[in-house]
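User: Hi! I'm working on a homework problem where we have to compare a predicted structure to a textbook description. Could you give me the structure for the chain below?
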Amino acid sequence: MTTSLVRRAAAEAVGTASLVAVVAGSGAQPAAPSHDVGAQLVANSPATVFGLGTLITLFRSVSGAHFIR
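Assistant: Happy to help. Predicted structure tokens:
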């Protein structure tokens, strides 16, 4: 494997793990203050959007920010 391929694969793995953490964390956060599912989804969406946007911005130059489809 070439160094470039290893670097891209590592960026994909770190990005995917970070995205899983963002989605799990944003899903757990709104569950505490409210039992209304609609309010939880409204609170969850911006956190997921900004987390994904940040990860794409950080990893776009290394691996294309595909995050294993």
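For your comparison, note the following. Residues 26 and 44 are 5 Å apart (CA to CA). The radius of gyration is 15 Å. Good luck with the assignment!
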